[in-house]
Amino acid sequence: MNILARHGLRLPRVLLLTCAVMLGVFAAEWALLSRHAASPSSLRAVPPLAEAQAPTISLPPASTFAEITQRPLFGQTRRPEPPDHGRPGPPPARPNLVLLGTVMTGNTHYALIRHGNPPKVEPLAEGQSLEGWQIQTIANDHVTLISGSASADFMLGGGNRSSTTAPTQPLGGSWGGPPDL
Hints:
Layout: H1 3-7, H2 10-38, H3 66-70, E1 97-105, E2 108-115, E3 120-125, E4 129-130, E5 133-138, E6 142-147, E7 150-155, E8 160-161
Antiparallel strand pairs: 1-2, 2-3, 4-5, 5-6, 6-7, 7-8
């Protein structure tokens, strides 16, 4: 005879009894939690949170790390390299830029310069740096950049001229139009 047929009636009774016991446990826990949640002693006032303070980090003085700079970890001799007092290296390469225009307002002069890759247009004032060069002077029709002892002049519209040539006079309204962007 088949085992299921012989015990067929016992299996549903065992499952029914197990479900009834689990339901009783669930109901008892539910009643216990409901009573506990409703009691006034369980409703305590929660103190307000203090304002969160960022942790303070205090670093030791720099002199504590002097040994690290005196004996570099990855140097072959574990001694710092001597400072290079030789002649300065070559100036940076001549910047690739186009002078699109100049703005003169009182004592402030601005140059509208297109440079970089991809090209971007940027207004720069005298004294600002561009690709390792500093803008020395901005005139009506040209800009002079310096880097160390080297200098480079850029004419309005993209023309260049050597640094030994004297500046030309403004074109006085007979110019060929705005440069191509």
